[in-house]
Amino acid sequence: MSQPLRIVIGADTFAPEINGAANFAARLAAGLTERGHEVHMVAPAATYRGHGVFLETHEGQEFTVHRLFSARWYPHPWLRFAMPWRIEQNSARILDAVQPDVVHFQSHIIIGRGLSHQAVKRGIRVIGTNHFMPENMLEFTLLPKWAQARAVGLAWKAAARSFGRAEAVTSPTRKAADFLESNTRLRGVYAISCGIDARHYTPSFEPPAEKLITFVGRITGEKQLDVLMRAFAQLDKSLDAKLELVGGGDQVAHLKSLATSLGIRHRVNFAGYVDDAYLRNALTRSTVFAMPSIAELQSIATMEAMASGLPIVAADAMALPHLVHDGENGFLFEPGNVVELAERLTDVLTMPEGELHRMKRESLRIVEDHDIQRTLTTFEALYRGELVSDTIVEPIPPRPHRTAWRERLAKLRDNS
After folding, report:
1. Which of 49, 95, 183, 221 is the right S-S partner for 156, CB 3.0 to 4.6 Å?
2. 57 has which bridge partners?
3. Is residue 160 located within the same domain as residue 225?
4. In a 3-state reduction of DSSP, which class is residue 138?
5. What order do you get walking across the sheet with 38-44 strand by strand?
6. In this structure, are strands 52-58 and 61-68 parallel, antiparallel, or unpaired?
7. In what order do the strands lie in the sheet with 288-291?
8. Do 170 and 189 touch, CB atoms closer than 8 A?
């Protein structure tokens, strides 16, 4: 049996913040701890005075978290950041105290930059994972339009420098890995799924108590939730469907106002930030999961919905087609197309029970390939300097002609 490793994981966003990168960092650290490794997380403090070294419990496992002094980025609704001018000093101090076997950073912006630079100086193996698209942060920079393209270019150059120090670079899907390579001079980026522990989610094949459409994630601009709201407003009222948005963000007030103006406010529940029990129950009792986002490098929320046995209706953008196989476990729609999204939601909500169960089973089958244990084993190999194969299990599948599956659905409805 291999010797346990001492691992430093660096993350610019971490619990109590709720987003895909933060959730993955917590699951990775917890999974590695459960396997017997000594894990040290480096992350911004959650409050102004909350910096220091703590034993914290995340995902049921206790590990050490080095919380760096942080400040709020006030254009953003919740983001906190470590001081960039102190990151080299802080990184050196932590690495000298911990003396890890490997450093694994989750973004290049501040903490990843400092840790990777100081680790290379000390001859420590560095692994980098990218969850970040600079374009997603433009609305929170307050930069004028004419300066935004240059800012994105500079951000990618910074990413290339930090990830260039890593012995291996990963991103959650092949699409995301290709995207990183195309915007930097990096080559050989591994596609390694963030993974999910499907045991924590409960599929239901009982008739749903109501026709419920659910979204889980940050309520922010790139998620395109206004598109979902307008599509929901177009559904036939006889369906008596309801919509639940689980999560928080800067667009909540705007979307509540939009729901009121569309006349659907009484049928839309803004659940806000919730605990894991509420989230999992919300998925279990849902009929269909909607993901209209155009900026998903993998989408852990979509995988959680699949592990709950839900059919998915998602934008045909970025990495979502890796998870949503059109006509098999759900449907893809043209990004931003309100009419098509409404049609695809209607297809699921009016689907015969047998066809709905087929899609539910297919979601469960597809998500099996994203088991968190496989992800942990792959990263353990990288940490030890071993060669690994690209772990995406299948390319985006060929898509059936949309008229064909619409005709099939019509026949099924006629026969039901």
Report:
1. 183
2. 62
3. no
4. helix
5. 52-58, 61-68, 38-44, 6-10, 102-105, 125-129, 168-171, 190-191
6. antiparallel
7. 268-272, 242-246, 212-216, 288-291, 312-315, 330-333
8. yes
174 within a domain of the structure (yes/no): yes
Closest CA to 136 of 10, 312, 290, 13: 13
> Comparing C-alpha atoms, which of 271, 296, 294 is closest to residue 281?
271
In a domain, 173, yes or no: yes
SS3 400: coil
Q: CATH number of the domain that 223 lies in?
A: 3.40.50.2000
Pairing verdict, β 80-82 and 70-72: antiparallel
Q: Give the DSSP per-residue string, 181-199.
A: HHHSS----EE----B-GG
User: Quick one: 361 and 213 in the same domain?
Assistant: yes
Confidence (pTM): 0.79
Q: Classify residue 167 by its DSSP letter.
A: S
Q: pLDDT (tens digit, 0 to 9) for every residue of the chain, 416 residues total? A: 579 999 999 999 998 887 778 889 999 999 999 999 999 999 999 998 899 999 999 989 999 999 999 998 877 666 788 999 999 999 999 999 999 999 999 989 999 999 999 999 999 999 999 988 766 665 666 667 777 777 777 888 988 999 999 999 999 888 888 889 999 989 999 999 989 988 889 999 998 889 999 999 989 888 999 999 999 999 999 999 999 999 988 899 999 999 999 999 999 999 998 888 999 999 999 999 999 998 887 888 999 999 999 999 999 998 899 899 999 999 999 999 999 999 999 999 999 999 999 999 999 999 998 999 999 999 999 999 998 865 544 444 555 555 555 565 556 556 65
What gap in Å lies between CA 314 and CA 178, rounded to an integer? 21
What is the C-alpha separation between 373 and 298, in angstroms, rounded? 17
Q: Which amino acid, 191?
A: A
What DSSP string describes 330-398?
EEEE-TT-HHHHHHHHHHHHT--HHHHHHHHHHHHHHHGGGBHHHHHHHHHHHHTT--------S-PPP
- Which structural domain range is residue 56 located in? 6-192
**166 located within any domain:** yes
**Last residue in a domain, options 170, 192, 214:** 192
Judged by phi (left if over 0) then psi (alpha if -120 to 50, else beta), residue 249 lies in: left
Cβ atoms of residues 276 and 286 within 8 Å? no
Task: Tell me the C-alpha distance between 106 and 5, whole Å.
Answer: 18
